[in-house]
Amino acid sequence: AQRVTQPEKLLSVFKGAPVELKCNYSYSGSPELFWYVQYSRQRLQLLLRHISRESIKGFTADLNKGETSFHLKKPFAQEEDSAMYYCALSGAGGTSYGKLTFGQGTILTVHP
Amino acid sequence: NAGVTQTPKFQVLKTGQSMTLQCAQDMNHEYMSWYRQDPGMGLRLIHYSVGAGITDQGEVPNGYNVSRSTTEDFPLRLLSAAPSQTSVYFCASSRDPQRETQYFGPGTRLLVL
């Protein structure tokens, strides 16, 4: 079974401070991992995916297979980063194909 | 492109009533899915479809039915609503759910009394 855990329901930081949103996963194969974000009154949207190794809006995430983690990081948080963040895992195939498993979500609040 | 659309935006039902949540996409995506979002639970997959005529169960399928007669539409049916089905429902579509983004609809907020 695939599982995603986001241990922090709420995370508060001040503007300009570094931020790290934690994500741990459980999956027996090689997963595809994503971070989705939901800003206030907006749709859930993709922030980044590990396969692209990209940086979006200053956020990065590194897949650590040894620790089974995919933490989201940003060196200098901005007020507009305040949102709900979901870590998600997609299985590599077979019976897992198409099944996207989300974590419980972390609400990030960036204070001025 | 409208992307993924959902209707209605908000619905109140009484226990035992039935209803259909509509979802449509105009991106010609083969993959579509339904999630429910509950506080502290994140998003949980209800049903999904990898193409017209093909559907499968997700993590929490009980109490919900789906069908996929066209590529564009993927309705979710509640046959006999229960208070435990009070939630926000999201529909999503993707060209490749394993490697590419899933595009989400705006959501339907359902209250079952």
Stretches with pLDDT under 50, minimum 5 residues of chain B: none
Order of SSEs of chain B: EEEEEEEEEEE
Mean pLDDT of chain B: 94
What best-fitting shape of chain B do the alpha-carbon axes yield? globular
Q: Proportion of β residues of chain A?
A: 35-45%
What assembly state would you assign to the polypeptide chains in this entry? heterodimer
Biggest sheet overview of chain A: 6 strands, mixed
Overall structural class of chain A, as computed from helix and strand content, comes to mainly beta
| Overall mean confidence score, pLDDT of chain A | 90
Q: Whole-Å distance between the termini of chain B?
A: 36 Å
Sequence of secondary-structure elements of chain A: EEEEEEEEEEE
Largest protein interface, residues of each chain? A-B, 25 and 24 residues
Structural class per helix/strand content of chain B?
mainly beta
How would you sum up this structure in a few lines?
Chain A is mainly β and 112 residues long. Helices cover 0% and strands 43% of the residues of chain A.
Kindly describe this structure.
The complex is a heterodimer of chains A (112) and B (113). Helices cover 0% and strands 43% of the residues of chain A. Chain A is mainly β and 112 residues long. Chain A has strands at 3-5, 10-14, 19-21, 24-26, 32-38, 45-49, 60-61, 72-74, 83-90, 100-102, 106-111. With 113 residues, chain B is mainly β. In chain B, strands 2, 4, 5, 6, 9, 10 and 11 form a seven-stranded mixed beta sheet that branches. A four-stranded antiparallel beta sheet of chain B has the order 1-3-8-7, with no helix packed on it. The model of chain B has no long low-confidence stretch (mean pLDDT 94). The chains are: A mainly beta (112), B mainly beta (113). At the A-B interface, strand 6 and strand 10 of A face strand 4 and strand 5 of B.
